[in-house]
Amino acid sequence: MDHFHYIYAGLRVASEIELPEWAPFAQPRPAGPPDVTISIGHVRGDDLAAAENQRVITAGECRFLAPGAGCFGVRNGSEIVVAPAPDAPIEKLRPWLTGSAWASLCYQRGLFLFHASALLVDGAAVLFCSRAKGGKSTLAAELNRRGYPLVSDDLCHLRIPADGPPMIYPSIARLRLWDDALAELGWSPEGLEPDHARAGKYNVTGDVRGAGDASPVRGIYLLAWGDLAITPLKGVEGWRRFLPSATYRAKLLEPAEQLSRHSTRSMALLQRVPVWELRRPRDLTALKRVADLLRNHWSEAGYNS
């Protein structure tokens, strides 16, 4: 079977499944072997659907069932095998493939993943982190339409070199927004691809600056609800707040024997990059005021728009 070839998160991928979300990362067939293969086939334990526990995770293998989509097997940080459910459309497979399956593979490889929306401000990335439904994608959409290119949303890969700033790799140029957020932004859901995992949520293509090399990280904002304010967080307090806000699928980390390493890398990240708490009202009508506050914050720091 022919393969589609991508360079994504710094890895060379050969896939039997076309991934339109990764279109900016498509490459001609490389000369050498891929780092990762994605194939359609049999997943050991395809009967997970009948099991009470529908996920099996060890240091070198993750198998799970995605209801209505199929079974996924991830092995040794180098292989993802998909066994589609009968009559499952490919649209239902792709979110699981580029989400949980890809995260499992990256954790098996020992990569540093986190949960954030990231945009470029004056040539470097700022990150917005929150727990689920914390509004980071909605805020990123408002800033993106003001001209700040989208780097990544949801699942992010970050590298901390021995010298120099931490670097974030670009990822899927997509923002997942609820219908009320679309309404506040003045956008219509008509013509948008619905999120196949959550009714009332839609995929919006963001304005990106290509799919090139990793970008340096200049700041991190942890989102919280409250009166509008930006407050610096220091030392252990920043680290303690960052971990639950930014860790992607923590249940995948411990079986992959990466929990301690993830915690150590998080502390190293915060020693090099300033972190702030961004509080804002739990009210979509305040979205423009939040974006204005951030722009003023960046202007005072000497960043250009």
Mean pLDDT: 87
Total DSSP helices: 6
Low-confidence stretches: none
Determine Rg (CA atoms, Å). 19 Å
Overall morphology:
globular
Task: Please give the number of β-strands.
Answer: 17
Class computed from helices, strands and strand pairing: alpha+beta
**Main sheet properties:** 7 strands, mixed
Distance between the termini: 46 Å
Q: Which bin fits the share of residues in helices? A: 10-25%
One letter per element, helices H and strands E, the order comes to EEEEEEEHEEHEEEHEEEEHHEH
Notable traits:
alpha+beta, 25% helix, 305 residues, five-stranded mixed β-barrel
Q: Mind explaining what this structure looks like?
A:
- This protein has six helices and 17 strands.
- The chain has helices at 90-108, 136-145, 179-185, 235-246, 259-272, 287-300, and strands at 4-8, 11-15, 36-40, 55-57, 61-66, 70-75, 79-84, 112-121, 124-129, 150-159, 167-168, 174-178, 193-194, 201-205, 215-225, 229-233, 275-280.
- It is globular.
- The model has no long low-confidence stretch (mean pLDDT 87).
Layout: helices, strands, pairs:
Layout: E1 4-8, E2 11-15, E3 36-40, E4 55-57, E5 61-66, E6 70-75, E7 79-84, H1 90-108, E8 112-121, E9 124-129, H2 136-145, E10 150-159, E11 167-168, E12 174-178, H3 179-185, E13 193-194, E14 201-205, E15 215-225, E16 229-233, H4 235-246, H5 259-272, E17 275-280, H6 287-300
Parallel strand pairs: 2-3, 3-7, 9-15, 15-17
Antiparallel strand pairs: 1-2, 4-5, 5-6, 6-7, 8-9, 8-10, 10-11, 11-15, 12-14, 13-14, 16-17
